Amino acid sequence: MFSRITGIGSFLPGQAVSNHELARRGIATSDEWITSRTGIGFRHLAENGETSSDLGLEASRRALSAAGLEASDIDLIIVATSTPDYIFPSTACLLQSKLSNHGATAFDVQAVCSGFVYALTIADKFIHSGSHKRALVVGSEVFSRILDWSDRATCVLFGDGAGAVVLEASDRPGILATSLHADGAHHGILSVPGSVCNGKVIGDPFLRMDGQAVFKFAVRVLAEVGEECCAAAGIPSAGIDWLIPHQANMRILEATARKMKVPMDKVIVTVDRHGNTSAASIPLALDEAVRERRIRAGQKVLLAGVGGGFTWGAVLFEL
Ligand code: ACO
Question: Which fold has domain 2-171?
Answer without folding.
Answer: Peroxisomal Thiolase; Chain A, domain 1 (3.40.47)
